[in-house]
Design goal:
Radius of gyration: 23 Å
Strand order of the largest sheet: 1-2-5-8-9-10-11-14
Mean pLDDT: 86
Length: 501
């Protein structure tokens, strides 16, 4: 494929598509896609451009990228409680990072569209039956009798995404994100003493800082703070949505041509403003990524992604060769634009040493501008003796800390993390039990107690904050030279056992 080849939102159709969904009723599919093309965008070009700008800050080590949420969303989980708990966890995580690293956090949720999942096989055995694999709520049903792909599910995905995004926006503009009451972000159910005490220490310090700001009549950025006034910088945060761009027919239908926002207009040498150029935005999410199973250089997904204006992610696994990675960057970012490409590495704790240094060196030598973030989840999945998919907290931390160290040794820097976590609570008010270890010291016999994921296992609220404190401590050590760490606290609390042991 030549990067100079003409691109259109439909040019991917001339390429082989991995993980393709076969719909038995093509006439119904065409009708649904026609309807989706007429529906309003979920996100705006201005929001996408704002994210692109913020990602350039991450690229230049002036911000940290948190990419987090469910492995796969479900329609049934689209509730006020689940969405609020998920946003509360993301806000809590980012607050911990900001406190330790003293840098802004760019928040991108795996939310409002992450309804499809790639599968290793098109079919699976359930009992003595072989049925089509479950591909996510926007394709087919989890029930073995509901596995025929149904185009109407894409319409349902659009409207569930709309509902989710509307609720997220209402939360973030109604004071839910206010730094004046961070304990409202679902900390009430946390049962780990180490997590609770450390978070309360941060919120108490924050409260003192805000009280001082009120006393002298100032808030962040020198903006006046007045009771009853606008929400201001302390009450609002930027939040962006993302999902894997797996279902290309849906992504094509949500791709719209718009002029670049006027704030980015260019000017001729004589000072006259040039007409805004038109570009293609995927309006289903601010950020989309190419999965490890769909990143073929001559494939349909890479062809589609090379033409959209959105910032994109590329999953980088142990099977990707160094020269292949550089060719990928040549295709999806030929003009080498800052903030355009985020590389999401997912090797597995036992393979990161053999793969990450070579990938870093190859990108450095190519001169391509990228953001590096670590996904320590996908390469570390295992099956428990009871047959449940799970992940070990200690292994997740091992890959993450190895990534931080290797980037430093290579003259690079880890710019963020990509995590599958959930703030979801069970009916009895407990966190889910899907990953082993952490400050809760979750054991294998406890996994079935509150295992709720229908796809991959997720870190629960306490385990997620464990990760946040460990990352925050790393940056705090760099900034202040501090000796005592959260890892030391957890090690002591667990009676000398390592995290995840």
């Amino acid at each position: 494929m030549s990067v100079s080849d003409a691109w259109t939102p439909t040019s991917w159709r001339n390429k082989p598509a991995a993980q393709d969904v076969v719909y038995p009723d093509r006439e119904k599919l065409d009708k649904v896609l026609t309807k989706i093309r007429t529906l309003p965008p979920l996100v705006s070009p201005s929001e996408i451009e704002r994210l692109r700008h913020q990602l350039t800050q991450v690229q230049s080590n002036r911000a940290f990228l948190l990419h987090a949420g469910d492995c796969a969303e479900s329609f049934d989980a689209c509730t006020h409680e689940n969405i609020s708990n998920k946003i509360g966890l993301i806000l809590s995580f980012s607050l911990i990072l900001i406190w330790g690293a003293r840098m802004p956090v760019v928040r991108i949720g795996r939310i409002a569209g992450q309804y499809a999942k790639p599968r290793s096989s098109p079919t699976e055995k359930i009992g003595d039956r072989e049925v089509l694999s479950f591909r996510g709520d926007n394709v087919n049903g989890l029930d073995p009798d509901d596995r025929t792909p149904d185009p109407d599910r894409m319409l349902s995905a659009y409207f569930h995404s709309t509902t989710t995004l509307n609720h997220v926006r209402s939360l973030l503009t109604s004071g839910f994100a206010s730094l004046h009451h961070p304990k409202d972000w679902s900390l009430t159910h946390v049962r780990s003493p180490a997590v609770r005490e450390e978070f309360e220490r941060i919120t108490e310090g924050l409260s003192d800082a805000l009280e001082f700001s009120r006393t002298i009549g100032l808030a962040r950025d020198g903006v006046s703070y007045e009771q009853g006034g606008g929400r201001g910088a302390l009450g609002e945060v930027d939040f962006y949505t993302s999902h894997e761009g797996l279902m290309l027919e849906y992504e094509e239908a949500m791709t719209r041509e718009f002029p670049v926002p006027s704030s980015l207009a260019s000017y001729a040498a004589d000072g006259t403003r040039t007409p805004p150029r038109k570009v293609h935005y995927n309006t289903s999410a601010h950020f989309l990524w190419i999965g490890d199973r769909t990143r073929q250089l001559d494939g349909a997904h890479v062809e589609y992604f090379r033409g959209i204006r959105n910032p994109i992610g590329v999953k980088v696994g142990p099977s990707m060769k160094a020269d292949e990675l550089v060719r990928m960057l040549d295709i999806v970012n030929p003009d080498r634009e800052d903030g355009k490409v985020t590389l999401i590495t997912r090797y597995g704790a036992g393979k990161v040493e053999d793969n990450l240094p070579g990938h870093i060196r190859a990108v450095q030598q190519s001169g391509h501008p990228v953001i590096w973030i670590s996904d320590p989840m996908h390469g570390n999945t295992l099956t428990s003796t009871s047959g449940l998919k799970t992940r070990n907290f200690g292994t997740i931390i091992s890959e993450l800390t190895s990534c931080i160290r290797i980037h430093t040794e290579c003259g690079s820097r880890l710019g963020g993390v990509s995590l599958e976590f959930t703030g979801e609570l069970t009916e009895d008010g407990y966190s889910v039990t899907e990953c082993l270890g952490g400050s809760m010291n979750l054991s294998e016999d406890q996994l079935p107690l509150r295992y709720q994921s229908f796809c991959d296992p997720r870190l629960n609220f306490e385990q997620s904050l464990d990760v946040a404190f460990l990352i925050s401590d790393q940056y705090k050590k760099e900034r202040t030279g501090a000796k005592t760490s959260y890892a030391d606290i957890l090690y002591s609390e667990l009676g000398g056992r390592k995290l995840g042991a």
